[in-house]
Structures are given as C-alpha cells and as structure tokens.
Amino acid sequence: MIAEFGGTNARLGVTVNGSSLAESKQYLLSDFTSIEALFDKYFEEINQVVSKGIIGVAAPVIEDEIRFTNNDIKFNQNALKNKMFPKGLMVLNDLELQAYAIEGLSNDEIIRIGQVKEEKKGSKVLISPGTGLGLAGVVDTKVIFTEGGHLNIPPDSPELEDLLNKFREDKRRPPTFEDLLSGKGIKFIFQSLDGSSVIQYSNEQILANKDNPVCIKTRKLILYLLAIYCKYIALIWGATSGVFLSGSIANTLLKPEDLDTFRTHFESSATMQDLLKIMPVSLIKDTNLGSKGGLILASKG
Questions:
Q1: What is the pTM (predicted TM-score) of this model?
Q2: In terms of C-beta distances under 8 Å and separation of at least 24 residues, what long-range contacts does 39-45 make, across chains too?
C-alpha cells in the first residue's frame, strides 16, 4: 500500500510490483480520529488487507512517534507496523516521498518557467505550498527531507511591509514563509487586504479570480512570495539542476501569463543574478506526485 498524508487529505492506493497503482481513494483526515481507523476504512472498501506499506506524512520523521504539523493526528511507527503492516512499513516525510518522483518526470509532465536548460549538474529542490509549505532536496539520487517552510520571511521586503506588520500585530511573532505560502496564508492575506472577517471565496477561487481587486492583489502577493522563497531556497541549496514546484496551489497560481513575472522576481538579485539565471524552474502538472514517488520506492523492494 502507498499512502500520502498531507495536512488535509489522505491519498491511498495499492501496487503489486511498483509499476502501477490500483484501488486509489482519497479521504479527508478530519473524518477520522486515528490513522488506524482510516486504514481500516480503506481496507474495508477495497475488500482486502495489505501487509506492507509506504507512508508519506506531513510531519518530520525523527523518532517512532509521528505528530502531524498541521492537524491533530499522531501515531507510533512500531505499533502501526506490528498491528497493520507486519511485512514492512516505511514512513517518510510527504515531500520526501514526492521528491522520489522527480527523476522520472518527462518533459510532457512539467511546464518550464523561463528558457533555461538543465546544463549544470547540482542539487534539485521540490517546493509544494498546500496546507503547509513543503520542501525537499535531492543531491545526486539522495532525497533529503527538510522543514524549510518554517524559515522567517525577511522583514526588508517593501512589497510585503504592511502585511508582515499586520501578522506581527495579530500573532505576536514574525511570520514564516509557511504562514503565508499556504492555504491559511491565502486566507490571511485576503482578509488583511479586504478588512473583512468573512471570506466568500475558496482559496482556489481567490487565486483564479481575475475580476475582484482584492483577489487580484492577493494573487500578486502570493506569486511574489513564492518567487522569492524559491530564490532563497535555490541559492541555499545550489539548485543548478532545478527548482520544481508541485501541488494544486502552485498549479492554480502559475498560469502562462504569470510565468515571466515569476521568473523576473526569481532572478532579481543585486549579487547573484547570474547564478539565478542558469537555474531551471519547472512546474509539475501532476498534483498527485506522492503516488509516483511511492511506486518508485515500491519497485525497489
């Protein structure tokens, strides 16, 4: 079984040899009180029990006890293995799981942002804004999990000054990139600009709306924030083999007419523009990347 647990949804499927996924289903995490209850429901619906699993979780995987970052779910790896997956259980960060799929992507599965070709060998990074803000790195073929979304946003961005000040006033702390580059961040930015406590749009509607001036400004700020975050991460990792963006927020935000603006923000630097110009940036079209990463791991046994 391959399962990806984000901050909001869980996607599950089964595979025999890692070549394809069957019995794919999606569940809302808020509908379950435990991860075991969710697996019981899934096995009941597919009318089979699977004894080996690969699970990606929106949480740091450090010890046996796993606690999700953006919801109340927690579980013990050893206890879960002994109870439900006696033939083997692999638990890893959800972006770490997704990053295993990068190597196998074809040109048809990505949209290149800018005309840069992948010429210089170096690391790669995968960035995915969603319920939280996920980041994983790839060095050679080794995938490295991070919690880089929790870096504080630099306070010297004039475009963001009012927004950052409001966040500090409301939350009594400086904002991280995850605070604003996420589902909750879209809501916070919209409400800060609109001055209303009630939002009549979903996050997807805010990013897609081209008529409402508050939606348009929210979208521009998110686009700018994502570009500068990608820039900082690319420089830190030396990502000369590529910055990859994934997930529904990135795919809703980055439309063809916005790619040049994004690339301009990404390359904007008084000292490192020449390096940034040779770094490829790509949008991954598939919003279910975790399953592909899981299949690659499953095929390796």
A1: 0.91
A2: 39/3, 39/84, 42/12
- C-alpha gyration radius of the chain: 20
The per-residue pLDDT for range 3-27, each reduced to its tens digit, is 999 888 899 999 988 888 999 999 9
pLDDT in tens, 137-173: 999 889 999 999 999 998 877 778 889 999 999 999 9
Strand partners, 89: 53
C-beta of residue 253 within 8 angstroms of C-beta of residue 180: no
How far is 242 from 254, CA to CA, in rounded Å? 17
Q: Domains (ranges, CATH) in the chain? A: 2-94 (3.30.420.40), 102-284 (3.40.367.20)
- Assign 203 to helix, strand or coil: helix
For residues 254 and 81, the answer to whether their CB atoms sit within 8 Å is no
